Amino acid sequence: MRRSASSCLDSWLASRDRKPLVLRGARQVGKTWLVRDLAQRSGRQLVELNLERHPAYAEHFRDNDPNQTLRNLAADLSLSLQPESSLLFLDEIQATPQLLASLRWFREDLPELPVIAAGSLLEFALRDHQFSMPVGRISYCHLGACRSMSSWKRAATDRCGKCSATPNSACGSRRRCTARR
Hints:
- By secondary structure, the protein is of the alpha/beta class.
- The chain contains six helices and five strands; from the N terminus they run αβαβαβαβαβα.
- It has helices spanning 4-14, 31-42, 66-77, 99-109, 122-127, 149-154; strands at 21-25, 45-50, 86-91, 115-119, 139-143.
- The chain has a five-stranded parallel β-sheet, sandwiched between helices.
């Protein structure tokens, strides 16, 4: 499944003035898939931390020192991490919204490491936050549902994000799949 968001992520990754990126969007619109695809296409080592499943990973970020964070993660995950050839992905960041504030330190102290955070309920976390947001030091991208027929046809083997329909089968729900409109 190729989306225009893929080319957006490619441009972000290639940018010399790259800031940590926060991908926002509803559940099941392809945020995680896009980041995994970006890492694969760019040949970068993906360091994926699902903060909903493993909230303890947030402890590695408490000192606001990206270099120490990277060393801690490397030890915890038994990996050799090189910032120039890795991609740090903080998935489901809404589970630990205070980490959004720590993204600024990656921009300032470790700019060679691309960092992407993604979450589906970020609007609530951002609205109710009790911490200082790093204004101007992170980039945001809102990912909507794939709705065009051309995108739907390109994703012929993929499933709809709202049901189990594919372009060659009917939607199993009572109403028509929104991706087929």
